Amino acid sequence: MVEVAVRVGGAAGDGIASVGEIVAKSFARLGLHVFGHNAYQSVIRGGHVWFQGRASTERVYSQGDGCDVVYALNPETAEIHGPSIKQGGFLVYDPEKFTIPDDRIPVGATAIKVPTLAIARKFTSQSILQNAAGLGAASYLAGLPLETIQGALADSFGKKKGEIVEWNIGASAEGYRVAREAAGREIPAIAPAGPPKLLMTGNQAIAVGAAAAGCKFLAQYPMTPASTIMHWLAAHSREVGVVVKQAEDELAAINMAIGASFGGVRSMTATSGGGFSLMVEALGMAGMSEIPLVVVESQRSGPSTGLPTKTEQGDLNLMLGAGQGEFPRAILAPSHPVEAYRATLRAFELAEEWQTPILLASDLHLSENFATVDRGEITFPTEVSSLFTVTPNGHDYLRYAYTANGVSPRSLPGQAGLQYVSGSDEHDEKGHLISDTKSGVPLWVAERTKMMNKRMHKLDGLRGATAPPYLEGPADAELTFVTWGSTLGAVRDAVKLLAARSHVTSILVSPTVYPFHGAEFLALAAGAKKLLLVEANYSGQFGRLIRAETGFDVPHKLMKFDGEPFYPMEILQKALGVLIDGGK
Amino acid sequence: MAGSSTAAAPAGVGTLLPLVGKSDTKPTWCPGCGDYSVVAAVEMALKKLKIPSHEVVIVSGIGCSSNLPHFVNSYGFHGIHGRALPIAEGVRWANHGLTVIATGGDGDGFGIGCGHFVHAMRRNVDLTYVTMNNQIYGLTTGQASPTSMMGQKTKSTPTGVIENPIDPIALALASGATYVARGFSGDVKQMAELIQNGITHKGFAFVDTMSPCVTYNKINTFDWFRQRVYKLDAAGHDPTDIVAAWSRSLEWGDKIPTGLFYRTEKPTYEDLEEVLAAGPLARQPAGLSGRESILDEFL
Ligand SMILES: Cc1ncc(C[n+]2csc(CCOP(=O)(O)OP(=O)(O)O)c2C)c(N)n1
Ligand code: SF4
Ligand SMILES: [Mg+2]
């Protein structure tokens, strides 16, 4: 088994993410499983940012613990990440930029001095070229073949050709050579482990998924960590035939998306908690007027502006409760780009089938980190069904007709003889208001109840149409993790770490957070020996939902709200504690 | 009952499609409310243009005035307070073959929705925005609105308004609207004409109608306006002259101009959005079937 992690760190503006992405991409091209972790701050220049590409011949679901190679562009990086270097690992830096006293070199690690600036000067006066030299050095130490890294490096310039690309290629070769000489031992090159894999972020998977699902309209207002959904679709707008509208604010974004959906196209908006807070009223309108809508809520650390570039799962309560009154909704919570792609497809189907808003719960950890996906894991639907499903029937068309499952035939503007008024006020089957002159009159009091029942009945349908919880791992595990969303990744890695220590654990996975599948959850939980809830927020919001829906309190809890994603080791440590500890 | 009696007519060749008219819902406005004139003018304009009712979408927010879509037999979207414009823009981009009209009140458009007002105009979205400006919050029973005049006593300003009113016409000119007009509920014919020309205008057409609230605004009444309004065209105003439009927009007091302030041609948002060149979005193919090479960039 091959398992290797490379970390590149420096200041914002140093080009860290692109170096890291090239490393991650190179691993993916070798057919390895990769998790690319992009850690940055809310500054454009300065501060401390780092990117880690972790690769393995086995599936990896998180950034993991520790790394094998650190390429430090500044002394701070050496300071912060040195302790993470594993036994036998390397610390790459340029002594022309700064020095690290021998006693500051982490125990068990070898310092590799690479004259990155000097190498860069051989080609150009632009110091950014130092990154290519450092990349080359780090790549050698990580076991990446030079051709692989150079291929990914050249491709990162896109269609650009010429001396810039050549300089980069040259500098990377120089760095590679220097590292080979300095390493003190031959690092075996990683052999291809299979066909190249796709490397994508959760947001890219969501964007591709939306286009594949037939989404034709995205309205969005920039907000980390949701913005890159808009960036991908905007860059591919013509190619995929999706209108991308940067709205004046999130109020406009969601209302535009609702208008477009009413007008006859699948549509979506995406935001983070702050923007979602602004969308709340319109979300209810989509529920009330029964308009299909997909909303991506990519959470970041709150409250308020919080930690804009750090992760959290603190918006579950908000998503569950967003909007005055009650209306049906579903919340899907993928944990990995493949799941995000599929959940996006499903969200569009559900929104249309049940004519109500569907929330896709992501977070910074899923939205912005990279993971590998087998090409075969992403298949585009062969046919996207038309929205023109209602034909005039010679009778008065009832947009909100009472039906067995609560879903009424929806006409689209432009269809003759099927006009109606879509209303945010309570209305009758025809769409006529019962809020003004009729409300409070007994006949219409009964009508209101019927209309509420009709809409809310869709929740049962949604429960049946969404994926129930399932158990990952054996039924007789010593301990069962309960988690949701992106945290599942680190839990999966923790399960492996525990297995290596002869502890058999399992995960109770809830791909659908709402409507909560209480009966299925309880059945699975009943069979578990010990249960440990893991989620990235302060109060255990998912645990509270479980309690509210089932009366069952997951006995052991691991919460985290420091802005950082879970590390498998911290989950392992907690799990070991629970295993030793008594109680269920 | 024009809507329901003809609803059975199937879409197709040789069928006379129903034109815009009244719906089977009777307006619930107070007797004498200015908004009766506005719905009449909207209907007259659309009838004149012979646009079939199913090709029209009237979008509104919340307020007395925002109930308007219910009284017309076209498609309608009675949205939430202040959001008529973004909803209307979304409808328009989903299907730019439709005639989209946004309507609402002064609170809806210039208060809670003011941000959208400015942005829709700078985008020059091809839709018509008809505001029923009664300088008061009608539906919430008479609080000050962003267009209430200085000193006006309302429920929320018992000692008089102490803020300057928004001037929607000047704001529209400043925001790049390409068709800017003012109507008055006392003159339905003029208003219908302004709306009709607004609909045929390529780009964002703004028609602010002075539509008195007979219940809660005892100052800006029909009579108050009748004593003050004069017609811009009769006064020799040149609607292609932006500077003249500016100076006319500042007139508010003893004399209040009505009619077309300004009109110009600019590319619309729909003209410039390249994806829409392939036809209305709702009729375009959707999905990525057979386009797997899109994934190559992730390799
Ligand atoms: C978000 C929100 N805030 C407040 C209200 C209450 N509200 C309903 S209509 C309205 C103002 C109506 O004034 P205007 O838009 O001028 O319409 P008019 O009734 O005068 O025609 C208000 C504040 C609401 N419906 N939604
Ligand atoms: S309250 Fe005023 S605006 Fe509302 S319907 Fe009555 S007159 Fe018209
Ligand atoms: Mg008003």
| CATH structural architecture of the largest domain in chain A | 3-Layer(aba) Sandwich
Biggest β-sheet description of chain B: 8 strands, mixed
Helix residue percentage of chain A: 25-40%
Strand order of the largest sheet of chain A: 6-5-4-1-3-2-14-7
Find the count of extended strands of chain A (DSSP E, 2+ residues).
21
What class would the helix/strand composition of chain B place it in? Answer: alpha/beta
Q: Could you tell me the mean pLDDT of chain B?
A: 94
CATH class of the largest domain in chain A: Alpha Beta
Number of domain modules of chain B: 1
Kindly report the average pLDDT value of chain A.
96
What can you see in these coordinates?
- With 584 residues, chain A is α/β, with parallel strands linked by helices.
- Helix content of chain A is 39%, strand content 20%.
- Chain A has 19 helices and 21 strands.
- In chain A, strands 6-5-4-1-3-2-14-7 form an 8-stranded mixed beta sheet, sandwiched between helices. In chain A, strands 9-8-10-11-13-12-19 form a 7-stranded mixed beta sheet, with helices on both faces. In chain A, strands 16-18-17-20-21 form a 5-stranded mixed beta sheet, with helices on both faces.
- The longest helix of chain A is centred in the last third of the chain and has 24 residues.
- The radius of gyration of chain A is 26 Å and the shape is globular.
- An 8-stranded mixed beta sheet of chain B has the order 2-1-3-4-6-5-8-7, with helices on both faces.
- In chain B, helix 2 crosses helix 7.
- The radius of gyration of chain B is 20 Å and the shape is globular.
- Chain B starts with a helix and ends in a 27-residue tail after the last helix.
- The chains are: A alpha/beta (584), B alpha/beta (299).
- At the A-B interface, helix 1, strand 7, helix 7, strand 8 and helix 9 of A face strand 2, helix 3 and helix 5 of B.
- The complex binds thiamine diphosphate, iron/sulfur cluster (SF4) and magnesium ion.
- The site of magnesium ion has 9 residues of chain B, from helix 4.
